[in-house]
TrEMBL record:
This is tRNA modification GTPase MnmE. GO terms for biological process: tRNA methylation; tRNA wobble uridine modification. It comes from Duncaniella dubosii. The keyword Magnesium applies. GO terms for cellular component: cytosol.
């Protein structure tokens, strides 16, 4: 059962379970200093100044001869602590036995074992953090890439909350004008010009709508940007995936998907976490049932924010067009397609040792020596930044340039087996990840609960504007405005319920 006894003094291990160099046991509550003092041989913690660290021994009063450990106690006095209460953080040597014994000792001396997220919930209850900031604590702890960290840290500092509060204050201002009018309804006065109200409401709607639509970027950056690599058998999908993952081996991990045969590989490139969808499918042998392969690709596309479609230079034009249409039809809104012509190293021997005319009239001779091909910059310039002219190309290869040049889809020329031009592919991934938009972290929504609340706020604000447009009476408009304010308030926790708090803090681990 969820307890609300903030008068208890609670304790928990705040470092990960297992053996480490040190472990930290956190104690918080009115009796924190007194309880720890009963097992502490060193300076009396109830008398030392706040924010100081002290070396001492942990003693079991029933067995004083044999100290449990030599430890460091850091003291934070209420209200200048994370929870807003008296807090002692005891750093002990990381043995599991010491950790367990210290916890037992603290509980015997009057502490209660903390519940999941209870330290953070107390911080919220004591006004140290608002609800969005408290949720961001969990996100900061879980962040696994620079961009995810940047968003979470900004939210934890309160930037996002400040933005929401500003919106809320403006809504309250509109509402109070309307309410005032209602108080004087007998006298038929109009305190708030309808046009003025409408302008304000529309401005707020624009801001709320842009927060709502930022969620797809925000959640992708937080959870990992979903990327699908698709293409026909032998296009080089698994070669590309392995190249990307091997180059970034240090941070590669396998995340089990929702079904047993789905595996997702993740990696961080240039501060952004990418999640490769259905890598089990990519790694399947080419003799997999053709239909299943295609179905799988469409499923992967439907979940992706970025789709890398690998084609080979010899793909017939008709086939390319057919696939392109069907990929476009399956591409979710807001996602991006990169068409990568793979195996350009094979092209090299057949066409690259003669001059290629570029559309803008430049003429670049591509050297066939290995040194020149290894020079990625040289190849980047030749292959990616310009569209090839049709005339001088290998006929089938030229068809690609012709067929894609009318769309915005960037066409990259790569070699997954030699790594040529992969840096351009990575740049394109970064551009489409949305990471650059996240500079204004306070304007990006990363939390599904906030997204839901903002979506509701948006709907009720639209009703407000409709009401003004149709000349609805003030009390109906005021009702919708109150609803909008309610939804925004629920984000920062100005309005909240026990159930909501329970759901939020239960997701935390014990010790946080
Ligand atoms: P998938 O079926 O799409 O996963 O294709 P694979 O990655 O298994 O590649 C099929 C074949 O093409 C393998 O023999 C690869 O070594 C080869 N291959 C992949 N990429 C390249 C490339 O850039 N250049 C060349 N020459 N061969 C490649």
């Amino acid at each position: 059962m969820y307890q609300q006894l903030d008068s208890d003094t609670i304790c928990a291990i705040s470092t990960p379970s297992g053996v480490g160099g040190i472990a930290i046991i956190r104690v918080s509550g009115p009796e924190a200093f007194n309880i720890v003092d009963t097992i502490w041989r060193g300076r009396k913690l109830s008398e030392v100044t706040s924010h100081t660290a002290h070396l001492g021994d942990i003693i079991d009063p029933e067995n004083e001869e044999e100290p449990l450990d030599t430890a460091v106690a850091t003291v934070f006095r209420a209200p200048r602590s994370f929870t807003g209460e008296n807090v002692v953080e005891i750093s002990v040597h990381g043995s599991k036995w010491i950790q367990r014994e210290l916890l037992n000792l603290l509980i015997r001396r009057g502490c209660r074992m903390a519940e999941a997220g209870e330290f953070t919930r107390r911080a919220f209850a004591n006004g140290r953090l608002d609800l969005a900031q408290a949720e961001a604590v969990a996100d900061v702890i879980a962040a696994s890439s620079r961009s995810a960290h940047r968003l979470a840290a900004s939210q934890m500092r309160g930037d996002f909350s400040k933005h929401i509060s500003e919106l809320r204050d403006q809504l309250i201002e509109i509402a109070s004008l309307l309410e005032l009018e209602l108080d004087f309804s007998e006298e038929d006065v109009e305190f708030a010009s309808r046009q003025h109200l409408k302008n304000l409401a529309e401005q707020l709607l624009t801001r709320i709508s842009s927060l709502v639509s930022s969620f797809s970027t925000g959640s992708a950056l937080k959870e990992g940007v979903p990327v699908a690599i698709i293409g026909e058998p032998n296009a080089g999908k698994s070669t590309l995936l392995n190249l990307l993952l091997n180059d970034n081996r240090a941070i590669v991990s396998d995340i089990p998907g929702t079904t047993r045969d789905t595996i997702e590989d993740t990696m961080e490139i240039d501060g952004v976490l990418y999640r490769f969808i259905d890598t089990a499918g990519i790694r399947e042998t080419a003799d997999a049932v053709e239909n299943l392969g295609i179905e799988r690709s469409y499923t992967a596309i439907s979940k992706a924010r970025i789709v890398i479609w690998l084609v080979t230079p010899d793909m017939p034009q008709e086939r390319f067009q057919t696939f392109r249409k069907s990929i476009a039809a399956h591409l979710p809104e807001g996602s991006n397609l990169i068409v990568a012509v793979n195996k350009i190293d094979t092209l090299h021997s057949s066409v690259c040792n003669r001059p290629i005319n570029l559309v803008n009239g430049d003429s670049v001779g591509i050297d066939s020596t290995d040194d020149a091909m290894k020079d990625e910059k040289h190849v980047n310039e030749n292959f990616t930044t310009k569209t090839f002219g049709v005339s001088s190309m290998n006929p089938s290869f030229a068809l690609f340039t012709e067929s894609t040049s009318t769309t915005d889809t960037p066409l990259l020329y790569i070699s997954a087996s030699t790594g040529l031009n992969i840096s351009s592919l990575l740049k394109q991934l970064h551009r489409y990840s949305g990471a650059d938009e996240s500079g204004n972290a306070d304007l990006i929504v990363t939390n599904a609960r906030h997204y839901e609340a903002l979506t509701h706020a948006k709907l009720s604000l639209i009703r407000v504007i409709d009401g003004i447009n149709t000349g609805l009476s003030g009390d109906f408009i005021a009702q919708d405005l109150r609803e909008t304010i309610h939804h925004l308030s629920s984000i920062t926790g100005t309005i909240t319920t026990d159930d909501l708090l329970k759901t939020i803090f239960e997701r935390f681990c014990i010790g946080k």
